[in-house]
Amino acid sequence: MPTMTFGRAINAGLRRAMDDDPKVVLMGEDIGKLGGVFRITDGLQKDFGAHRVLDTPLAEAGIMGTAVGLAYRGYRPVVEIQFDGFIYPAFDQIVCQVAKLHYRTQGAVKMPITIRVPFGGGIGSPEHHSESPEAYFTHTSGLRVVSVSNPQDAYTMIQQAIASDDPVLYFEPKRRYHVKGEVDEGAPPSSAMGDARVVVEGTDVTLVAYGPLVPTARDAAIAASDDGISIEVIDLRSLAPIDFPTVEASVRRTGRLVITHEAAQSGGLGAEIAASITERCFDYLEHAPVRVTGFDIPYPYSKLEFHHLPDLDRILDGVDRVLRRPNSLSALDADAAVQR
Q1: Cα separations (Å) of 258 from 56, 176, 204, 239, 292?
Q2: Catalytic residue among 102, 129, 261, 308
Q3: E strand spans, 253-325
Q4: DSSP structure string for 13-77
Q5: Nearest to residue 155, comparing CAs of 23, 281, 40?
Q6: In 3-state terms, what secondary structure has residue 120?
Q7: Nearest-10 crossing angle of helices 312-322, 214-225
C-alpha cells in the first residue's frame, strides 16, 4: 500500500470520486490553479478542467447558494470552506436550506452536498483560522457531520460523503495534513461512514476523541500503560449521528468515560456524549464522565494556543480523575481551570 500524507489522501479521494461520477464538481476560494491554501486540490483543475474545479469569489454565502442550485439540478457539489471560521457567512444557507430541503419536500429534493471544513488549531493562526465549529452543525437536524483522523479514513470517507444523498460536513484537522500513513486505494470501506472505531483496546477507561485529538488520545493510552492503566481509545468519526452503541459497549466494560475535543466545553459535543452515556450506562459507571476540552474563550493568540488545546498531560489528568487517583484535579478545580 502506498504511504500518503493526510492532505494527499483527501486529494486522491476527490480525484477518485471525480473519475467515478462526472456530476461531482468542486467549488471554493483559490482551489483551482493554486490548489487551495493547503494544496488539497492541487492538480485537479489541470486534470478535470475549470468547469469542474471552480475558483469562486470570496463569498461563502454565494458559494453555498450556488451549491444548492447545483444539487437541485442533479450535481454533487463539493464545497471547500477555506478556514473553519469562514463558514459563518454560509451558516444561514447551511442550516436553513441545505439541512431542510430534503425533509421539507418529503424526499422529492435531495441535497448531496459535501462541505469540506479545515478545522481546529495547532498551526499558529489566530481566531477565524483555528476554530472548532462542529457543535453548531451537530445540533442541526438534516446534516451529517464527520471528522477524519488518519489518511485512510481521509481517503475513504471523502468518497462516502460525496456518494451520500445527504448533505455532509466533512471536518479535516488542518494540523494533521502532513501526517503520513498507509492508504489502500483499492480496498472497499472497512466500515460505514457513521461508525465509530476502537483504535486501542483497553479495560480501565474509555477515552473518546475525534479528528485532531485521536493521535493525542492514542499517545495517552501508551503513556498510561506505563503506569498499568489500560485505556480504550474510540475514534468517533461520525459526530452526527453518533455511534452510541460502540461507545456504550466500551463503557459497560470499563465503567469510566473521558471525552476530549478542542472545542469549548460549554455546549460542546462532549456534553451530549456524557449525558447520553450517563442515561444509557448509569448502573455501569464508576465515576461521572469527564470532559477534557478547549476553554470557554475566543481562540487565543498563537503563542498561547498550546495552553488552550487539550494535550497529553491534560488528557491523562482526566483519566486520573475518573480513576480517583491522587494528585488529579478535583471537579471544582477543573471547572475553575476551564473558566480561567
Answers
A1: 41, 22, 11, 16, 7
A2: 129
A3: 257-264, 290-294
A4: HHHHHHHH-TTEEEEETT-SSS--TT-TTTTHHHHH-TTTEEE--S-HHHHHHHHHHHHHTT-EE
A5: 40
A6: coil
A7: 60
Residues 122/213, Cβ–Cβ less than 8 Å? no
* Close Cβ partners of 228 (under 8 Å, ≥ 6 residues apart): none
129: annotated active-site residue: yes
Residue type, 214: V
Nearest one of 103, 171, 91 to 142, comparing CA atoms: 103
CA distances from 334 to 147, 261, 294, 327 (A): 27, 15, 12, 12
CB 321 within 8 A of CB 226: no
Strand partners, 54: 27
Collapsed DSSP state (helix, strand, coil) of residue 148: coil
Per-residue pLDDT of the chain (340 residues; tens, 9 = 90+): 899 999 999 999 999 999 999 999 999 999 999 999 999 999 999 999 999 999 999 999 999 999 999 999 999 999 999 999 999 999 999 999 999 999 999 989 999 999 999 999 999 997 889 999 999 999 999 999 999 999 999 999 999 999 999 999 999 999 999 999 999 998 788 789 999 999 999 999 999 999 999 999 999 999 999 999 999 999 999 999 999 999 999 999 999 999 999 999 999 999 999 999 999 999 999 999 999 999 999 999 988 999 999 999 999 999 999 999 886 655 545 555 554 4
User: Which residue bears the cell 475558483?
Assistant: 55
Alpha-helix residue ranges (DSSP H) falling in 164-311: 214-225, 244-254, 269-281, 305-308
CB count, 10 Å around CB of 2? 11
Which grid cell sits at 115? 462541505
Q: Considering the entire predicted model, what is its pTM?
A: 0.93
